[in-house]
UniProtKB/TrEMBL annotation:
Keywords: Amino-acid biosynthesis, Methionine biosynthesis, Oxidoreductase, Threonine biosynthesis
Naturally occurring in which organism (per UniProt): Methanocorpusculum vombati
SUPFAM superfamilies linked to this entry: Glyceraldehyde-3-phosphate dehydrogenase-like, C-terminal domain (SSF55347), NAD(P)-binding Rossmann-fold domains (SSF51735)
Enzyme class: oxidoreductase
MF GO annotations: homoserine dehydrogenase activity
E.C. numbers: 1.1.1.3
Protein name: Homoserine dehydrogenase
PROSITE patterns (alphabetical): HOMOSER_DHGENASE
InterPro entries (alphabetical): Asp/hSer_DH_NAD-bd (IPR005106), HDH_cat (IPR001342), HDH_CS (IPR019811), HDH_short (IPR022697), NAD(P)-bd_dom_sf (IPR036291)
Family: Belongs to the homoserine dehydrogenase family.
Pfam families: Homoserine_dh (PF00742), NAD_binding_3 (PF03447)
Length: 329
């Protein structure tokens, strides 16, 4: 199937790398960064090594006659892969890209949290009206298949509660403060160097990023119809190494926990004390989610919540699901 790839940053590179394996059966026919676009001749596909080399040399992946908007509207593709940077306030420009593609009857796969957290009900309806797929596994917990795990793996099994570590940056900061007695500011600097933090890391440390992921899960998996304002949010920005030391004296640690209680309609992100041997106590940038299920008790998912190829693995799973359902051209 033919892919239009919007966003050539860390995730876009990962997607291009993964899709370069012809065994998956996808070709990239159009690609755009924030300044330009490249479109393959009809019947052929883009050489992505060439596209990235051009971008490295000139700052642009293609020519300015094309850009993301024009590609979405006019280029030939079956699936739009939207991995441009997240805008948590407006969802733009990704929200418009996704709307336009779905209205053309094109499938959309995205790891972009902004548009899905802001407009999931509208986008899902648009997708249904145009018989198009809208999949976004990579928006929550990166490589960890939490959305597919809940929707398909645990189909029919009622989830009583969900608790998770959904922000790798905060988890890294807390781990480093605890292990090395770093201050909050020192640990945040390290996390930024690792490239996990959002462009504005305030969104990570004040709990917004984890809250956005909760909204996506709440709406797409539990059909709760909520917005970011429905999430109680307390970040880790005021935590001191002393608080972590004190927690340690009773065999506990502190983690930023995101939780959903679907029946009570409760959504919360806050630092909580948890026993050090609890399965949710993961180190570094890992994510972890425990779901309390009615039929099978607790089930915990753990893995890499961000990263280039890691997020691309979630995008690939969605692409293969589209291919299986809608076939290829
Ligand atoms: N800033 C996010 C995190 C990236 O630290 O988890 C993945 O959504």
């Amino acid at each position: 199937m033919k892919i239009a790839l919007l966003g050539l940053g860390s995730v876009g590179r990962g997607v291009a790398r993964v899709l370069s394996d012809p065994a998956y059966g996808f070709v990239i026919t159009a690609a755009a960064d924030s300044k330009s676009g490249a479109v393959a001749q009809p019947g052929s596909s883009l050489d992505m090594d060439e596209v990235f080399s051009r971008k490295a040399a000139t700052g642009r992946c293609g020519d300015t006659a094309w850009n993301a908007e024009r590609i979405v509207r006019e280029a030939e593709y079956d699936i739009l892969v939207e991995v441009t940077p997240t805008n948590a306030q407006t969802g733009e420009p990704a929200l418009s890209h996704i709307r336009t593609a779905l209205a053309r009857g094109k499938h959309v796969v995205t790891s972009n949290k902004g548009p899905v957290s802001i407009a999931y009900p509208e986008l899902a309806q648009l997708a249904a009206e145009h018989n198009a797929a809208l999949l976004f596994e990579g928006t929550v917990a990166g490589a960890v298949p939490i959305i597919n795990g809940l929707v398909h793996g645990l189909a029919g099994n009622k989830v009583l509660q969900l608790f998770g570590i959904l922000n790798g940056t905060c988890n890294y900061i807390l781990t480093r403060m605890e292990e090395e007695s770093l201050t909050y500011a020192q640990a945040l600097d390290e996390a930024r160097d690792l490239g996990y933090a959002e462009a504005d890391p305030t969104y990570d440390v004040n709990g917004t990023d984890a809250a956005i992921k909760l909204v996506i899960l709440a709406n797409a998996v539990f059909d709760m119809g909520v917005t970011l304002d429905d999430v109680i949010r307390i970040g880790i920005d005021r935590l001191t190494p002393d608080a972590l030391r004190m927690a340690g004296t009773t065999g506990h640690t502190i983690r930023l926990i995101a939780s959903i209680h679907p029946e009570k309609r409760l959504l919360e992100v806050s630092p909580r004390l948890i026993p050090k041997d609890h399965p949710l106590v993961v180190e570094g940038t890992l994510n972890a989610v425990t779901v309390e299920t009615k039929l099978a008790g607790p089930i915990t998912f753990i893995g890499r919540g961000a990263g280039s190829v890691e997020t691309a693995s979630a995008v690939l799973a969605d692409l293969l699901a589209v291919k299986e359902r809608y076939g290829g051209t």
